[in-house]
Amino acid sequence: MAGKLTEMPAWQALAAHHRGCGGANGFNLSRLFAADPQRVQTFSARCGDVLLDFSKQLLNPNTLHLLLNLARDRDMANAITHLFSGAAVNVSENRPALHTALRAQTPVPLDGHDVTTDVRRERDRMRAFVETVRGEHKITDIIHIGIGGSYLGPAFAGDALLAYAEKPLRVHYLSTVDGGVLQQLLTRLDARATLVIVATKTFTTAETLVNARAVLGWLAAQLGGEQAALAQFAAITARPEQAVSFGIPRDRVFEVWDWVGGRYSMCSAMALPLALQVGMAPFDALLAGARAADEHFKTTEFGQNIPVLLALLDVWNANFHDAASRVVLPYLSGFARFPAYLQQLEMESLGKRVTRGGAPVDYDTGLVAWGESGTNGQHAFHQLLHQGTRLVPAEFIIACRARHDYPGFHDMLLANALAQAEALMLGNAASEPHRTYPGNRPSTLLVLPEADAFHLGFLIALYEHKVYAASVILDINAFDQWGVELGKQLAGRLLPELAPHAPVGPHDASTAALIHYIRTHGRS
Prior knowledge:
Blueprint (H helix, E strand, L loop, with lengths): L8 H12 L8 H7 L3 H4 L1 E4 L2 E4 L7 H13 L2 H10 L23 E2 L2 E2 H22 L4 E5 L6 H10 L8 E5 L4 H8 L7 E6 L6 H18 L2 H5 L2 E5 L2 H7 L6 E3 L16 H7 L1 H20 L6 H15 L4 E6 L7 H13 L17 E4 L10 H6 L6 E8 L7 H18 L16 E8 L2 H22 L10 H10 L14 H13 L3
Parallel strand pairs: 5-6, 5-7, 7-8, 8-9, 10-11, 10-12, 12-13
Antiparallel strand pairs: 1-2, 2-13, 3-4
């Protein structure tokens, strides 16, 4: 990936092409479709029975040709090889990002050791634990305590796969340090039928440990002491000794590793609450789907490579069409949390302002990812998508089949998704200005045959690889997140200052005034 991105011939060719077309106005989608009846075939890609239709994006065949040149000039093929081989792609922390090893079926060496043996060991332990808990029928509820990558993926996947579960367990996620949420949850649960999972890679995450101690206190009071309470705890961590020091039995501590980032850990033991909720068979299918996406990313030429194409579209929209965000619209049952899951995956990975070598960038990196599931967004924010002043590319995710018994419902859902994409593209002229839709708003449709466990795993890995492909093009590190550290450090310093009469350290005038106001008004 030698050379500054904006000085590369491929980038300059794209800039000249954009200027030559007259900017966004030069990519009139209605005219492009009228001029090319085969446009959908040109601007689509498939992997098995998964379809990506990006024909409604603001680009023409020359645009696509130049974007693919950019991917080649950024040495995308070698970058993909480095990811799967265990190279230190996380340059700021000098370590690999081997989340693909979590579902690999062939050896993955790291420092002379095949890490897949560790993965299989933990998965076998996880399988035995899941089968025991679900087989005994004593546990009805699980409190999963974690935040970020320890929470967002399993919570999203659990909702998405609930329709595929036999006798699902109830999983309650505790992430925020909001005592009101904790209080409301604990009043609803039977302590003797509750399993608690503490998920923290370092076992030092402040929010997670505060919640864990509070839940331990509740269980101890209900069950007659800490020893009895801790017997109903399990942990997921890269620091097993820390979990054991907390009091959790070693045989209930499941390991993850430093070579797996939290937001890339869905195929590891971090998915324990998901496997407990829906069973190991759906989790195994999820792993198989993720492997299929890995193979697609590794072996498919870039013009049909879905992660590479999605990454190129984001770079094109952000840097040449001035898009600041991308809306994700899953018209799928159980996908309400998917936009939040993608927010962490994409915005922690791509929200960077320096290159892999530490130089400031002079181009736009990560887009803001946001969205809502189903038709809910149509009655909330689609007004801005259709008639607002900012260009917001849309990403629709749909499935041809649904798993429920209500005839007509799924067709209605699909009709709404297709109609929204068509309306964004075509617009509608009206005699009254406030009724006019300008149209020419770009969108992509990702079509699954069904949102089952296999295709959910495929989708998760697809977006993991899309993020990595974007980071390769943008020359940034997708696997660190230093931007989250400063707020943690300041919060630790501020916390004791909120106590009555505690000395207040040096702060800006606003923060100092707020501390004083809270101390004055926050306690009766």
